[in-house]
Model the fold of this input.
Amino acid sequence: MVISIFFHFFGAVVWVGGMFFAYMALRPVAAEQLPPPQRLSLWAGVFRRFFPWVWTAIALILSSGLYMIMRLGGFQALPWSIHAMFGTGIVMMLIFFHVYFAPFSRLKRAVKSEDWKSGGEALASIRRLIALNLSLGLLEIVFAAAFRL
Done:
């Protein structure tokens, strides 16, 4: 179980920590210092490097979480807080899948074709969805800290 807990926490730290850094530190500085073409190119590059880590984090979180649930007797043996964490995690994953396959794809196309207006719209969509996912991720941390088994 210790290895599963490590992988679970590692995935959460990478994903939620990455969103926190991007949203709270990188985003405001990029907006202050870079004109739209450079800012959009920066974000396309940042996401290109960060999103493979998110895919890895999702695989780690989901597999370790399901393993621990099964080891503890399945969903029926667990308190509501674990169900809430699992459900919130699934919602976060679905939001990320949407970000990856829709607005991130639009952002990459826009940067490649130098369509800065469309790129700005795609980035604004990504920003809103990351804010939502970051909020959900922080809620997950509250659940994990407050309602431990």
